[in-house]
Amino acid sequence: MRFNILPIALATLCFGTVLAQEPDAAAAKQEKLAALKQSMAQNQAELKQYTWTETTQVSLKGEVKKQEQKQCQYGPDGKVQKTPLQGATPPQQPEQGGGGGRRKGGGAMKKAVVEKKVGEMKEYMERVAALVPEYVPPSPQKIQAAQAAGNIAITPAPPIITITIKNYLKPGDSVTLGFDAAAKKMSSYNVASYLDDPKDDVVKLAVKFAQLPDGTTHVQQTLLDATAKKIEVRVTNSDYKKLAQ
Hints:
The chain is of the alpha+beta class.
């Protein structure tokens, strides 16, 4: 019996080519991630020479409910230390009408219900605002963990490389960042996450970058949008000054 060995030879050749390409693809991926982490580390080292002002605004249905400012700089442990500044706007409380004497009991009950709702919304807003520093700036340790778990996909489109990270902080969330390979700088950073429920508590986060006069890249503004509750958290970094040497 005679066998046609051509299909077998072609299959073997193709399989061998795939095996040969896999190490190259893996090496290229490792190289891109290494460049990203090196850029982040270098940029962080440069930012350690600065102090800046962080302004946080929390809005509900387009109305600012809370504003606070903090003086920021990196501490010896490599984490950003924040000192509250004067002039923060306390959370606004809804106006409550006074009840008449005949409805004293009903008025007290209504007031208690309103206060409970206000308290719950305030807590929700604070929890949403607390998500921002969990994602910004991106953590090299979390990126390393995602890489080890196989949760990183890279799409090269020179000069920008798009890096998508799944399960960055929570199961099912995603971080998509654009990395300018030529400039070795991050060009975009977007997050799709949630607070408690991935369907009902959707949170989107977009980051804008800017450069200081010496070329150091910094996060200029972060906008977090919790669409379900119509809550926005806008964090703006400004007034960068070099620390005295």
